[in-house]
Automatic annotation (TrEMBL):
InterPro entries: ATP-dep_Glu-Cys_Ligase-2, CP_ATPgrasp_2, UCP005522. Residues 98-472 form the Circularly permuted ATP-grasp type domain. This is Circularly permuted ATP-grasp type 2 domain-containing protein.
Length: 503
């Protein structure tokens, strides 16, 4: 059951009489507070930032947040809100107070994400080859083979190093005890890494003194690590790499352009590429160049009008034929979507045990699969307590948060579940951890999550020490997606030092 998290953070307050009068005493909360212990005292890793903030007035901190917004505007860091009839481009809200994670905690997250992605890649190889996990009944075969994201094009096709998802995003939350849970996996075209990198630039620009005191573990190497991962996806020496974008109307277009610039590779759309004699070529001012690796940022359905949707103008005709001829690498590989569907998510723990012979480092959130009669019956009778999601949904769309829904919304979802149960899953309403943000009333706690990014090649798995921390900017909201009004924070991974508690 949800409770309010609109309580202030007195221990973080600037020392101004105006602020002190405007804010109330912190309330008790069942949510794990990233900054404070249960007794209200500041966690060791936050002491320096608390001291830094307390030395500034509320107005000074507001000015820093305003400068951060201007940075986003100046750099053109925007996203498109598809639910807006006008397709509005907006800057994403940024909060100056960082989310801080000790390295010993980060190592758990990093190792758990690597383990998970390794198992998911093994699963993808298996279902497109021997299908052992299906034959042994660990996962119901029909749930995989009849899945709309399952691609027969990939059957018995060997990808280099058995890596299907080169770039993965794993969404992590913390419950009321502070334990880490995986909320979902993103293996198709995970986005948000540009926000992670730009958030760090803002921190270092606006708070250089406190950043220096913390000796933050760096994340700026991500674009070059991504490029190295793509290079390792092919046997070609000095491969030509391109980023394939659906265009500037895509919500993540800024990220496409940002990564192309940072990696020093061309950003292309369908008109820039063509297939001839089973090879993909790039049109350039120096003539045509054969393309060796395509980092695609559009979904399978739009990749090739000859193989998938014939009405697609975003893809390249003949691309899948070239891919099957092994003259080009597509990252992430077609067909990865079957592994990050929310109805497959409950089986990832089983995949880890089956393929790696290991116990999962990170826990799954308990999940009810509405395709199962017993689970559906429970969800229908307890829907007001649960979060119901579309199995193929993303961006916070197509979901119901039972405790916040009215009777009409609940009844509407009951009808959807009865009509198409296999399209939905349900989970308990989670007590996502909270972190302070600056609001018009001062500092108040808001729910957050974390998306680390895992880079996988046959040579190495790489995770930079940090991720995208997303914030539910609205009081009491559990939805952190930018498309639903969510914001972001910088994520600081810090070494634990004895002097950390000394200012």
């Amino acid at each position: 059951m949800l409770g309010t998290v609109e309580h202030t953070t007195d221990a973080l307050m600037p020392n101004t009489e105006e602020t002190t009068k405007a804010l109330a005493t912190p309330l008790e909360s069942k949510f794990f507070n990233e900054m404070r212990h249960a007794d209200g005292s500041i966690r060791d890793e936050f002491i320096k930032i608390q001291q830094w903030l307390s030395e500034k007035s509320l107005e000074e901190i507001e000015q820093l947040n305003a400068q951060a917004k201007q940075h986003f505007i100046y750099e053109g860091i925007t996203f498109t809100v598809y639910s807006d009839a006008a397709g509005t481009e907006r800057t994403i809200p940024f909060d100056i107070v960082p989310r801080i994670i000790e390295k010993k905690q980060w190592d758990i997250v990093s190792d758990g994400c690597k383990q998970r992605v390794k198992a998911l890649n093994a699963f993808l190889h298996d279902i497109y080859h021997e299908q052992s996990i299906l034959k042994e009944g660990v996962i119901p075969a029909e749930q995989v083979l009849q899945h709309e994201a399952y691609q027969p094009w990939m059957l018995n096709f060997d990808v280099k190093g058995q890596i299907y998802s080169h770039i993965s995003g794993v969404d992590i939350i913390r419950d009321g005890t502070g334990d880490f849970f995986v909320l979902e996996d993103n293996l198709r075209t995970p986005s948000g890494v540009s926000y992670m990198l730009e958030s760090r630039k803002i921190s270092e620009k606006l708070m250089p003194d406190i950043c220096d005191k913390y000796h933050l573990l760096g994340i700026s190497q991500y674009p070059q690590l991504l490029k190295q991962t793509l290079i390792e996806s092919t046997d070609v020496e000095n491969p030509v790499i391109v980023i394939l974008t659906p265009g500037h109307f895509n919500s993540a277009y800024f990220e496409h352009a940002f990564l192309a610039q940072e990696m020093g590779v061309p950003l292309v759309n369908a008109k820039d590429l063509f297939v001839e004699h089973g090879k993909v070529f790039l049109k350039s001012i120096h003539g045509r160049k054969q393309v060796d690796v395509i980092y695609r940022r559009l979904d399978d359905d739009f990749l090739d009008p000859l193989a998938f949707r014939p009405d697609s103008v975003l893809g390249v005709a003949g691309l899948m034929s070239a891919y099957r001829n092994r003259t080009v690498v597509i990252a992430n590989a077609p067909g990865t979507g079957v592994a990050d569907d929310k109805s497959i998510y409950p089986y990832v723990d089983d995949m880890i045990r089956y393929y790696l012979n290991e116990q999962p480092i990170l826990k799954n959130v308990p999940t009810y699969q509405c395709r199962k009669a017993e689970d559906l019956d429970y969800v229908l009778n307890n829907i007001e307590k649960l979060v119901v999601k579309e199995a193929q949904g993303s961006g916070g769309y197509g979901m119901l948060i039972g405790p916040q829904a009215d009777e009409l919304q609940i009844e509407e979802f009951r009808q959807k579940l009865r009509f198409k149960p296999h399209a939905y899953i349900a989970q308990p309403t989670l007590a996502l951890s909270v972190s302070p943000i600056l609001t018009e009333q001062g500092f108040s706690d808001r729910h957050i999550d974390l998306r680390p990014f895992v880079l996988s090649s046959q040579k190495e798995m790489r995770v930079v020490p940090g991720g995208l921390t997303r914030v539910a900017m609205t009081e009491g909201s559990l939805v952190v997606n930018s498309s639903q009004g969510g914001g972001i924070k910088d994520t600081w991974v810090v070494e634990r030092r004895d002097e950390m508690t000394k200012i």
